[in-house]
Specification:
By secondary structure, the protein is mainly alpha-helical. It has 3 helices and 2 strands; from the N terminus they run H-H-H-E-E.
């Protein structure tokens, strides 16, 4: 019977060599995944956004946006918070402030009278 031996050189010893440069073991991210994450990150960098705003702005599916948000949060590139009037979660770039809720449309006329809708 012959024995199979595995040499130490067959195992990756450099922790940063995972193909994505993030210092974690595992298979490298595909270029499509890296591109999607960059699109979502760039959209968030322009100002805090909800997931549905990201779906509308990027044209990605809700599932693809969710997965990108998960990876970007795990990598501590983005964070989430609640902003009253904007939904349960607003995602923003770490080091920035999420955008506040937009002001409601005024129902007052020029002379201060309430305008009927």
């Amino acid at each position: 019977m012959s024995e199979t031996t595995i040499e130490a050189t067959d195992v990756a010893t450099d922790e940063t060599n995972d193909g994505a440069g993030r210092g974690r073991p595992g298979r490298p991210r595909s270029q499509d995944t890296l591109t999607r994450d960059a699109v979502v990150q760039n959209a968030i960098a322009q100002g805090g956004k909800t997931k549905s705003e990201l779906v509308a702005e990027t044209g990605l599916t809700a599932n693809a946006v969710y997965l990108s948000l998960f990876r970007l949060k795990r990598d501590r590139v983005i964070a989430k918070t609640s902003v009253e009037g904007r939904g349960p979660h607003v995602w923003y770039a770490v080091g920035s402030t999420p955008a506040p809720a937009p002001e409601p449309a005024s129902t007052q006329g020029v002379d201060g009278d309430v305008v009927d809708e």
